[in-house]
Design a protein that fits this description.
S16 Ribosomal Protein, Chain: A; 5 helices
Length: 216
């Protein structure tokens, strides 16, 4: 007998409530079942633990016996680690648009990409255009400031040049003043020279008697 783990619908009209049961695969959905394994209330939130209630031990037993869960219960069991995650089947081409519609969609997507690229390039060009004048102005300001800075340096250096000789000349003036007393003793030398001249003058008369001697 092929066993199937599935959900049997209970509850009121438009208010479904499901039991998780194990039953013969040939029996109807809401027919006779072998054992009840849990409940599922779709009106509760996913965070509510009462949304899906399962008897894990009995489910493991029936899975070991060979019972096959339905697609919905396979998702519930995979969250609990009872079975592997279900493999999603490949969708057929019926859910896709036709060839011409796909071409139109591709053209629209390409136009959007081209428009985005054009807007991006325009934004970059505007940013560059705004940045270049600012850079040029900054360069011009720097160039204008450089001569002003040189002038200030020259103005500061020019008064420093005459100041250097003035302190040197001032010590020279007092040095020349003490030289005057040194010259005074030199003035005594000419005095000594004067008597020498005087001595030389009397020598002349000493020479005069010589003619007298010659007369005698």
């Amino acid at each position: 007998m092929a066993l199937k783990i599935r959900m049997a619908r209970y509850g009121a009209k438009k208010r479904p409530f499901y039991w998780i049961v194990v039953a013969d695969a040939r029996s109807p959905r809401d027919g006779k079942f072998i054992e009840k394994l849990g409940t599922h209330n779709p009106f509760l939130t996913h965070e509510n633990p009462s949304r899906v209630v399962m008897n894990i031990e009995r489910i493991k037993y029936w899975l070991s016996v060979g019972a096959k869960p339905s697609d919905r219960l396979t998702k519930f069991f995979s969250k609990e680690g009872l079975v592997a995650n279900p493999v999603m089947p490949t969708q057929t081409k019926k859910n896709q648009p036709r060839k011409k519609a796909q071409e139109r969609l591709q053209e629209e997507a390409q136009r959007k990409l081209d428009a985005e690229e054009a807007t991006r390039k325009a934004a970059e060009a505007e940013a560059e255009a705004l940045a270049t004048p600012v850079v040029e102005e900054a360069v011009e300001e720097i160039i204008e400031e450089m001569p002003a800075a040189e002038e200030t340096v020259v103005e500061v250096e020019t008064p420093a040049e005459p100041e250097a000789p003035t302190p040197e000349a001032e010590p020279e003036a007092p040095a020349s003043e003490p030289e005057t007393p040194a010259d005074e003793p030199e003035s005594s030398e000419p005095e000594s020279s004067e008597p020498e001249e005087e001595t030389s003058e009397p020598e002349a008369p000493a020479d005069e008697p010589k003619p007298e001697d010659s007369q005698e």
